Amino acid sequence: MISEGLAGVWQFFFQSRRMKLFFVWTMCVSVVLLANGMGENAEDRTVAWSAFVCAVTTVLFWSSRKRVSLLLSVHWSPRKKFIAVGSLGAIWVECVFWFLEKVFGASGVAASSNVFLDLAITMPWYVIMLWLLYTVETRYSYSYTEILLLGGVYELGADGIFAQILEEPTFSGLCLAVMVIPLFVVVYSIIVLAPSFVVREEIDEVRRLRPPGAHKYWCGLLPLVGLLPFALYILLLLLVMSIA
């Protein structure tokens, strides 16, 4: 069963010359993550091992994607199902980072040391992102490779840029965020790939009823607009917490 997931990884990286170059980029980032995973810095170890767990999760999902689709064949609207499946992936990812942060004695990797507060902080972003991603996919047809890459862009916007803006952004920090885009692709992979596969047929049906557009890749960036209402939510949450 795992062989099908590994075959999916091979197809992702070796389908074109550009993706082969992305494979080289990913390998460079992986070498750094491997060194960090064996190093002494608790935060670096947390990120490295969390990324590994996320990668394994996505491979396992792809290996058993048809069975998972059958298990999730609930009679909900396509958008609700899309958001629900993606949210389950997001909860899993957040819990992985939170748990390994505890294991390695790190701090500042997860949004909060309290897992429930962590989810309260992060889940609104995931829900907004998934809501907009469903809109995007029902307007344009994207390959699974494109969806995975877009997921990396979404995390670049959320964790690589927005999170730094909340603190003190630096030029080196922003450059580092761009350099580790392959890491972002891995972390968000289960969040965007699982709902895109599970709800694929319904998405295709909805898209057939809509006229094709001419701005496919610009439209693919639409979920980043969700950072605006998410920013308002964070500001409100910080205000409430300061009062409390």
Characterization of the model:
There is one protein chain. The chain has 244 residues and is mostly helical. It has one domain (2-243). It is built from 12 helices and no strands. The protein starts with a helix and ends with a helix. The relative contact order is 0.13.
Features:
mainly alpha; 244 residues
Give a brief rundown of this model.
With 244 residues, this protein is mostly helical. It has twelve helices and no strands.
Helix run count: 12
What is the count of structural domains? 1
Shape: globular
Biggest beta sheet summary:
none
Which regions have little confidence, pLDDT < 50, spanning 5+ residues? none
Radius of gyration (CA) equals 18 Å
Helix % is over 70%
- Number of strand elements: 0
Strand content: under 5%
The protein's oligomeric status is single chain
Order of helices and strands: HHHHHHHHHHHH
Mean pLDDT comes to: 93
What's the layout of helices and strands?
Elements lengths: L1 H12 L3 H21 L4 H22 L1 H7 L6 H27 L10 H23 L6 H23 L4 H9 L1 H18 L1 H9 L7 H4 L7 H17 L1
Helix pairs in contact: 1-3, 2-3, 3-5, 3-9, 5-6, 5-9, 6-12, 7-8, 7-9
